[in-house]
Target: Nudix hydrolase domain-containing protein
Amino acid sequence: MVQLKTNLDLVNECDNFPYPDIPFAQCLPSESYFKFKLEGCIAALGYVLPEVAQKLSSSPEWERNNASLELTFKPSNTPSDPKEAAAHRTAVLARHLQNVREAKTFRILDGWRNELYPVYGPGRELLFSMERSASALFGIVTYGVHMTAYTRNAEGMKLWTPRRAPTKQTYPNMMDNTVAGGLSTGERPFECLVRESMEEASLPEDIVRTAHACGTMTYFYVRDERAGGEVGLCQPECQYVYDLELPESVVPQPGDDEAVDFQLLTVKEVQSAMAAGRFKPNCALLLIEFFVRHGIITAENEPDYLEIVSRLHRRLEFPMGQV
Amino acid sequence: MVQLKTNLDLVNECDNFPYPDIPFAQCLPSESYFKFKLEGCIAALGYVLPEVAQKLSSSPEWERNNASLELTFKPSNTPSDPKEAAAHRTAVLARHLQNVREAKTFRILDGWRNELYPVYGPGRELLFSMERSASALFGIVTYGVHMTAYTRNAEGMKLWTPRRAPTKQTYPNMMDNTVAGGLSTGERPFECLVRESMEEASLPEDIVRTAHACGTMTYFYVRDERAGGEVGLCQPECQYVYDLELPESVVPQPGDDEAVDFQLLTVKEVQSAMAAGRFKPNCALLLIEFFVRHGIITAENEPDYLEIVSRLHRRLEFPMGQV
Model:
């Protein structure tokens, strides 16, 4: 007999880094993490597990301070021009991470992507970029797009819901949002959405351009076994959220090896699958946000409404930026 | 020449209680406030200005601790049954506030409403209720409903926008949201919306019941001169947000003395009035939330998009509840 999850359970599975008034049993207290810093920049850019900080700080461009719990990246000979400085830091970091990868120090780098993710400073300036698969080692904020495509007729609303391929490195076989993807350095959210919609769901550009932006969803995820790689790594995330109402004649189709198929499910069917834990955790969170926005989850039917809506928009304690 | 306000300026005017990384010049640091507590309950229920704590603690059912900065309400002979306890606390507090009102200790109590607002505990239980006009003295969370009524045709979207009467105690002559109202103890959000829509805008019940819930907006407001009463009082607020698309034939009309008229304005006209500072601060915030949700404010046209969306959903540090 499976214990059904409430919507707040689903939020707690994805936004599971401690708050001042909410500890999470499976997670270290927030003050136990090393702050990931860049020399000359006052802000913490991410949180690093103590054993990860230990292993990362073996080369001279790193300084680990066990008293202040800071892991500081200090590449030498950084140019003064901001753009050149960012390129220099990116190159030094890439060499370091390539060495770490070859030494097989961290399992999470087995999922090497050859894709660069941006790291922003307090003035929202691009400080440098980092190989995507390393982002959780440093606990930096990552950015993505998530879109829900749905149909609506007299019988109600239905959502296009893919099943992840059994061969995916992360969360194989779980249910997913219609389209989702990560934002590389320099990529604009809407353009990323258009590209991913074609790649993942074979949705034509002219249709996807009718999608509308609905805000962002932010949460602070601490990785568990299902995510693969080391457990306890920090993953604060910001998702740009889009809705796309489709005519019933448009049917998403897998365009790459991400999904095995797309099912058109009623709201009830989606909610049952969420409660049964069949959705990838952050996709369940996005669906909660969608249902709140569309008046399906309301104060009248959800006792945790107030807590849930704030938790979907967590203010992250790191600088954030956008292209 | 008026300095135009950005959307982030408007957010900063309404969500202006300090964050760990954002001080606000016109506001005390958060650690300077007294915590409003109830004997036997661990959570702070609100924040109280030091001079207000001083004046409130003159009678025996109050204890002021200047070392721990706590103002604790400890009515004697509280019954053990939770409902009876709540009624007892409410009555003791009402007597105290009536005395304070008659002594003319606080200007804000000149706006006495004879309306009770709920105060919830950490288990979301109703602890007691408090006269509405006193809520900012104790800095408790207050709850309300806000609805945007709009029309949509080939030319685009227009919003129904009232102007507040020049006789209003607070924010006279400023622009407002179509319908807004506070939630008294025991009142359900949607029923409050139906009642207020008739009272304020003469909108018939059958039409208002087609409105849809879109989530909540939470922010922490520190009162300034325009709010009336003492400056620097804390007002953490939670607004239940609703959208109502109206046919062009339905025209809201003032039903009481809240508004002088309703204007049907284009998105551009509303945004210009916001930038000119013509909207009541929390109404500007609600409109920003509406424009984000409807894809009018996007990552592509708003440099502060990420900051704004989180700030519209601040997680308040006090227990919150709902009926």
Q: What stands out?
A: The longest helix of chain B spans residues 82-102. The longest strand of chain B covers residues 142-153. Chain B touches chain A through 38 residues (CB under 8 Å). Chain B is about 25% helix and 25% strand.
